[in-house]
Amino acid sequence: MTDALFRAVSAALQDELVDAVALRHRLHAHPDLSGDEAWTAERVVDALGGTEVYEVATTGRMIPVGGSEGPMIAVRAELDALPIIEDTGAPFAAPGVAMHACGHDVHLAALVALARAVRQVGAPVPLLAVLQPREETRPSGALDLVREEAFTRWRVRAVIGAHLQPALPAGWVSATPGAVNASFDEVEITMQGRGGHGAYPHLNRDPVLALMHALVAAHQVVAVRTDPMHSAVFTVGHLDAAGTANVVPDSATARGALRALHAADRAMLCREVGRAVRSAAEAFGCRCRLQIRDGQPAVVNDDRLAGAARRWLDLAGFATDRTFRSCGSDDFAYYATAAPSLMMFVGVGDGDGVDGLHSPRFLPPDAAVGDVARSMLAGYLAGVDVAGGRPG
């Protein structure tokens, strides 16, 4: 039965792609930032054509397709864009200070194409189209959504996601079991010292020097305390000190991120980075304020869903990868607290230094809409096969 469903939905999906690409262009040209996605949500709902629409997590939407009785297989796409000024030169480029630099416009258009195809063909297990807000910022839209009564009402048996990935070649899709995206915790370090004239360092308590040593120590903690067969990374993206070339400031601040694929590493690194930072402050006679703000856990794929999806990906003509993992992070992780989940990565790399995610020049080709839609179909069918999605 599932093989026939695959063939029927695949054929119907092909007929939906022209309209889906047009929708992708429209969404790309009008990006909405996290928490302000109402326009995007309404355009997607209109294109999907659902008669039963539920507003969730403020700007999110859930639309059952193929029936309003559970159990269902949920397929998620993200509504929000990033605060980046686009530099692609595309005729449908965003004109303002936001852009879809992470492929969410493609994911949304693909989900619309899949949902419309499933509705046209009819399916034994309804699909729940999840339009999720606030993936790119906190508070997490996924965490809010899984707490919604509407999410539990339909007895969701599996949650499927597919994300563009320029690190993989076009034509490849990864369905890797286990941890595939890292946890994310935001780290903010402020060193409070005593500023003064740069010519008299012995009279100062230099917070900049203390901060630099703290950051090096934090990097060393990740390097020497993590099993080399595990993945973890510490990065710093913001530095702030109000001094000048000849003035030592009173304080200096750094903000960065700590990521780990394994939960035990996450807890250990948060603890040990804190210890290293406080030791650096003491060594240079400064006071330290350290904040490690909990982000999201690692994305962990269900083994059975990953294995089942690879069969359908093969039939769809993709080359499949079962080893790809990334220290990127995604609040898709929270869906695993409610049901087995699977995040696939859909290749858009061309082997020629394609600009990566969150770049102002990231512009996946329109063909990616079809690739993501077919990958979502593979995940949906995997849910039907192995995650208890059959009615009864």
TrEMBL record:
Ranges where the Peptidase M20 dimerisation domain occurs: 186-281
Organism: Pseudonocardia hispaniensis
Cross-referenced InterPro entries: Amidohydrolase, Bact_exopeptidase_dim_dom, Peptidase_M20, Peptidase_M20_dimer
Lineage: Bacteria, Bacillati, Actinomycetota, Actinomycetes, Pseudonocardiales
A Pfam family per the record: M20_dimer
Name of the molecule in the record: M20 family metallopeptidase
Family annotation (PANTHER family): METALLOPEPTIDASE, PUTATIVE (AFU_ORTHOLOGUE AFUA_6G09600)-RELATED, PEPTIDASE M20 FAMILY MEMBER
NCBIfam families to which the protein is assigned, alphabetical: amidohydrolases (TIGR01891)
